[in-house]
Amino acid sequence: MVARAENIGVRALEVYFPSRYVDQVELEQHDGVSAGKYTIGLGQSKMAFCDDREDISSVCLTVVQSFMEKYNVSYSDIGRLEVGTETIIDKSKSTKTVLMKLFEESGNFNVEGIDTTNACYGGTSALFNACQWMDSSAWDGRLALVVAGDIAVYASGNARPSGGCGVVCMLVAPDAPLALEFPLRGTFMENIYDFYKPNMSSEFPTVDGPLSVTSYVRAVDYAYMAYLEKLEKIDGEKNASLDSVDYVVFHSPYTKQVVKGFGRMAYNDFLRSPDAPQFADVQQFKDIAREDSYTNKVLEKAFINVSKQTFGAKTKPSLLAASNIGNMYTGSVFFGLASLLTEVSSADLQGKRVALFSYGSGCAASMYSFRVRGDTTKIAEALNLTSRLDSRTKVSPSDFEQIMALREKTHNALEYEPQGDVAQLFPGTFYLQKIDSMWRRAYGRTPLN
Fold first, then answer.
1. Which top EC class applies here (predicted)?
2. pTM, rounded to two decimals
């Protein structure tokens, strides 16, 4: 018999993002748009990207191997590996099976788990699966890995600046410093066509931009309300609100959307307690129907202003990676967590509740929370996030466009040898060597030194 696991959650964390980026100010100038359209309108500073040398399998191989080396974890100790991604290069073969290549030397092939897909939500579902496995009678005492991330690529035009690339690897274990609060979770799901990928011949999604924004804030509403209900019923919290959580980390398609999402939480607090002192200046919105509020820009701005100071304390520290990398789809919310651990000291985090809002178009969303129950210093040091972001190479917008054109041209290529310069990659990066006549992919790895 295996003893019941306690304080299950994230014990360790590693991230990977490409070595090159394009500056959003320079991209504004290159695209001939008004100054601030990407930097202020989207809230983005830099955007990571990769050429034809990297695909979803290579970036996942990179982050897992890097994680195992940094933390000196044995592949023999892993009993479950879950992958959350929406970047699909095969309609049948999962990315998880490619990652099993890393387990060969250990002889450990008894590893449960598989890919989970629904837009940007798959990583959260993978995390839930791994934690629930460890919390169940099926657990065999071993550890779990959760991998979440994507390559976010858009067609040339207004949507392209909201791309990015990043992937995370998390170790799920008992006695974790980031302990998942069972069962404090609120979920919202509905059928909606705001962002989806029906065309398998292209990397680009089909997007209804205005609908996607509305769907995101609608999901915030219902997931947050369900989470507050759990806090009151299960945790005994009275009049649960933003005051009940110390930090809030959001899925970030772009950071301006996170600002709107936080304001939306304040709006929900207002609806629950309209006479609270902090809402004295927004009483004119008391009688507006919820459905009408989604397109009310005056209301949106008012609650962004009302929550501005709280946002700065509870959410802004989590946006370091998002503003400098861009959208990472399934990995986005966890890069927010990595940013929080980077920007806030372990001492200041002790005992704090960190709420996460995960959203995936289509749509699936959850709000859940971790309680910090241990030292996070080693995680922050291993991430070394700020220095790694600063070590990247800036690429001109014209060169960036040429690289994107190459990716588009060679998508689903057969009998193909990539053209990208391997020397441009970070040390220890896995890369695509070739695709043969049966679409089988071979990978190499750059030297660590």
1. transferase
2. 0.97
